[in-house]
UniProtKB/TrEMBL annotation:
EC number in record: 3.1.1.29
Protein's recorded name: Peptidyl-tRNA hydrolase
Gene Ontology molecular function terms on file: peptidyl-tRNA hydrolase activity; tRNA binding
Catalytic activity: an N-acyl-L-alpha-aminoacyl-tRNA + H2O = an N-acyl-L-amino acid + a tRNA + H(+)
Gene responsible for this protein: pth
HAMAP family per the UniProt record, alphabetical: Pept_tRNA_hydro_bact (MF_00083)
Keywords: Cytoplasm, Hydrolase, RNA-binding, tRNA-binding
Naturally occurring in which organism (per UniProt): Pirellula staleyi (strain ATCC 27377 / DSM 6068 / ICPB 4128)
GO term, biological process aspect, one: rescue of stalled ribosome
Length: 189
C-alpha cells in the first residue's frame, strides 16, 4: 500500500489558499481512482483507492499544516507502510507557479508541514512532491502569502499544475519516485 499525503489546513477559511495545494492534488487523485468516501481517521480525512493492482491510502491531515507529522505517523504505523512508500505533497514558494519537484529525500526547505513530517518519522528519506506556488511579491509577509488565494490569472495555471501533479502521484504509485523525478522535474506548466 502507498500512503499519499496532501498537506494543508482544514476549514473553509483556508480552502483554495496556496498552502492547501496538497489537499487539492489528493482530491484530484481521489476522483480519478474513484476512491472511497472520506472518513475521519488518524487526525485527518482518509479515503482508499486502487490504481491497477496498487492500493493507495489518501490522507489529508486536519491537524493544521505545521503539525501534520502526527497524522502521517499514525497512518504509517497503523498500516505498517514503509517510508519509501509514502509521498508527501506540499506547496513551495521557492518554486515558480506551475513547477513540480519530486525528491526521494532531503531537508524540508523551510516548509513547516514537511519539517514536522520528517521530524515525526525520524528520517529525511521521505519521498515528496513540492508544487510551486510562486514567490511572495515584494513587501509581502511569507505567512500571509501562502495563506492567500491565487488571482484569476494564476488560478488557471495552478489548476493545470495540480492535474500534472496528480499524474505524478499516479506515476509514483506505479513506477516509484525515480520515475517521477525523471518525468516531472524538468517540466513547467
Amino acid at each position: 500500500m502507498k500512503l499519499i499525503v496532501g498537506l494543508g489546513n482544514p476549514g473553509s477559511r483556508y480552502q483554495g489558499t496556496r498552502h492547501n495545494v496538497g489537499f487539492e492534488v489528493v482530491s484530484i487523485v481521489a476522483r480519478r481512482v474513484q476512491a472511497t468516501a472520506e472518513r475521519e481517521q488518524f487526525s485527518g480525512l482518509v479515503s482508499q483507492g486502487n490504481l491497477g493492482p496498487e492500493k493507495m491510502l489518501l490522507l489529508k491531515p486536519t491537524t493544521f499544516m505545521n503539525v501534520s507529522g502526527s497524522s502521517v505517523l499514525a497512518a504509517r504505523d497503523f498500516y505498517k507502510i514503509e517510508t519509501a512508500d509514502i509521498l508527501i505533497i506540499c506547496d513551495d514558494f521557492a518554486l515558480p507557479l506551475g513547477k513540480l519537484r519530486f525528491r526521494a529525500k532531503g531537508s524540508s526547505g523551510g516548509q513547516k508541514g514537511l519539517d514536522d513530517v520528517i521530524r515525526r518519522l525520524g528520517t529525511d528519506a521521505v519521498p515528496r512532491l513540492r508544487v510551486g506556488i510562486g514567490a511572495p511579491p515584494s513587501g509581502w509577509d511569507v505567512a500571509n502569502f501562502v495563506l492567500s488565494r491565487f488571482n484569476k490569472d494564476e488560478q488557471i495555471e495552478a489548476e493545470i499544475s495540480w492535474q500534472l501533479a496528480a499524474d505524478g502521484v499516479q506515476t509514483f504509485v506505479q513506477e516509484g519516485i525515480q520515475a517521477c523525478m525523471n518525468k516531472f522535474n524538468a517540466k513547467n506548466v
